[in-house]
Every structure is written in C-alpha cells, then in structure tokens.
Amino acid sequence: MTTWITICDTCKRDGWDTSGAETTDGERLAALIESEPRTGVRTRRVSCLMGCTHGCNVAVQAAGKLCYTLGRFEPDAVSAAAIADYAALHAASDNGQVPFRQWPVGVKGHFVTRHPPLPSEPE
Ligand code: FES
C-alpha cells in the first residue's frame, strides 16, 4: 500500500521574510523530498497544513494505517532523507507503526500528531 508524504509548500521558518529567498522553505523541502524516491512512497504538495507556527510541516499517510504529522524541519537534505526513509518504513509496516528503534535520527523530536485510521463503515 502506498504511503504518501504530503508536504506543505507554503511553510516559512523564522527569518524567511528577511532572507531574500525567492522560494518558500516549504517549496525547498518539497523539492528535496521529491528528489529522494523510496519504494512504496509517493509525494504531493499542499498549501498549508495549519501548522504554520512550527514549519516546515509534512504528513505521512496511508489508507487504513496510523498517520502522522511532523514539523519543525529545516528545509535541508538531511531532513528530506530522514522523512523519505521514515515514510518507506511506514509503507513497509502493517499498520503504520514504525518501531522507535527504527526511526531515522532526523525525524526524532519532529512528531506533532498521530491519527488513528478511520473505522471501516458497514456497507
Ligand atoms: S504554511 Fe505550512 S502549515 Fe501553514
């Protein structure tokens, strides 16, 4: 089952306004994650995940699995690789729960929320 990394492309970290950057921090992180393909993982961009005060933000989601939002990322290659590696572990897991001992160092301390899968509805 595919795990999706949903990347906020409008996140701006403190100091962005005066940095002179032509792209947002979220756009930079999105491009870096998109350049880190992993088996079972796809990416998409959205504008705002409502975590603007603690960007950069991403969500890691798959149908029927535990889903997570993660934030406070620098828009750099180390963060992008850690997010992609974590998403690949999420894709390979049965229920979205990746054992802590397997977490890439770069995602530790970045988890913001966890969302249990929706219950299946009777037809
Ligand atoms: S701008 Fe990224 S969460 Fe709002």
Can you walk me through this structure?
The protein is an alpha+beta fold and 123 residues long. The protein has a single domain, classed as Glutaredoxin. The chain is built from two helices and five strands. It has helices at 25-34, 77-92, and strands at 3-8, 41-46, 58-61, 67-70, 111-115. It has a five-stranded mixed sheet with strand order 2-1-3-4-5. Helix 1 (25-34) packs across helix 2 (77-92). The chain is globular, with a radius of gyration of 14 Å. 38% of the residues are buried. The model has no long low-confidence stretch (mean pLDDT 97).
Q: Could you please say which CATH topology applies here?
A: Glutaredoxin
β content, as a range? 15-25%
Helix amount, in percent?
A: 10-25%
Strand order of the largest sheet: 2-1-3-4-5
**Count of individual beta strands:** 5
Class from secondary-structure proportions:
alpha+beta
Provide the gyration radius in Å: 14 Å
CATH architecture field: 3-Layer(aba) Sandwich
Number of domains: 1
* Small molecules in complex: FE2/S2 (inorganic) cluster
Distance N terminus to C terminus?
22 Å
Say what oligomer this is.
single chain
Highest-level CATH class:
Alpha Beta
Rounded average pLDDT:
97
> With helices defined by DSSP (H or I, 4 residues minimum), what is the helix count?
2
**H/E topology pattern:** EHEEEHE
For the largest beta-sheet, the strand count, sense and barrel status come to: 5 strands, mixed
Low-confidence stretches: none
Shape: globular
